[in-house]
């Protein structure tokens, strides 16, 4: 979906409020100390998380379906990460079992049709003591924007940004549905985070800061494999 506007989005995400001062701090905070750890960056985009993880001492591999994003991510990571073009609707056949200490999956779960299948693949790739850190659109965000029943589960086609022609297709789901998929795939929720905006946002993006202090836009999780469950 992002390929047509990949360069525009990369420039936008590098320093905007919702990415740089809201989601990235939340995801990297849940990731914790990654020094010396093998981290898989799923849907790596233009490499903003991958570069941050590398700078924190991680060994990074990853993928994205957009060839342009992968090119941008490789350049940003200066050859220090193994990043490949891969569609996450297909198995990660090139990634070995139990090979990742951590998987980072930022703001992409809601684009996937068969989320349980992908989560099970992440479960396979993770070491038994590993964790999956992911963020996604907060269920209340879609409900307040689109109306109807909060419990509706359906794909929605709209623009990623109201003032840009960036068409996407994403699922709206309740929090109950999101968590049920984690359980079905063999994960337990170790931590759930409804992020608060970074203090810097109040000065640089006061309108966005005010909105996010009232209602969260994203929700993030740290998931761990459930003992005895191996898909």
Automatic annotation (TrEMBL):
The lineage of its organism: Bacteria, Bacillati, Actinomycetota, Actinomycetes, Streptosporangiales. InterPro entries: Methyltransf_11, Methyltransf_Superfamily, SAM-dependent_MTases_sf. GO terms for molecular function: methyltransferase activity. GO terms for biological process: methylation. Residues 41-134 form the Methyltransferase type domain. This is Class I SAM-dependent methyltransferase. Gene3D superfamilies: Vaccinia Virus protein VP39. It comes from Actinomadura meridiana. The keyword Transferase applies. CDD domains: AdoMet_MTases. The keyword Oxidoreductase does not apply. Keywords: Methyltransferase, Transferase.
């Amino acid at each position: 979906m992002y390929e047509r506007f990949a360069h525009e989005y990369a420039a936008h995400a590098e320093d905007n409020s919702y990415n740089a001062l809201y989601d990235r701090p939340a995801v990297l905070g849940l990731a914790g100390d990654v020094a010396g750890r093998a981290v898989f960056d799923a849907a790596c985009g233009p490499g903003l998380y991958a570069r941050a993880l590398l700078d924190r001492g991680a060994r990074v591999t990853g993928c994205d379906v957009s060839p342009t994003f992968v090119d941008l991510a490789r350049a940003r990571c200066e050859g220090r990460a193994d990043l490949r073009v891969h569609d996450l609707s297909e198995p990660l056949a090139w990634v070995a079992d139990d090979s990742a200490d951590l998987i980072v999956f930022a703001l992409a779960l809601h684009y996937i049709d068969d989320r349980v299948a992908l989560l099970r693949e992440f479960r396979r790739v993770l070491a038994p003591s590993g964790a999956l850190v992911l963020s996604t659109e907060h269920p209340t965000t879609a409900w307040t924007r689109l109306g109807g029943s909060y419990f509706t589960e359906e794909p929605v086609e709209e623009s990623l940004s109201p003032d840009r022609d960036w068409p996407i297709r994403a699922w709206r789901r309740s929090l109950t549905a999101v968590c049920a998929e984690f359980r079905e795939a063999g994960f337990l929720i170790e931590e759930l985070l409804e992020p608060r905006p970074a203090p810097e946002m109040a000065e640089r993006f006061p309108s966005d800061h005010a909105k996010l202090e009232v209602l969260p836009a994203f929700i993030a999780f740290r998931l761990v494999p459930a003992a005895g469950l191996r898909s």
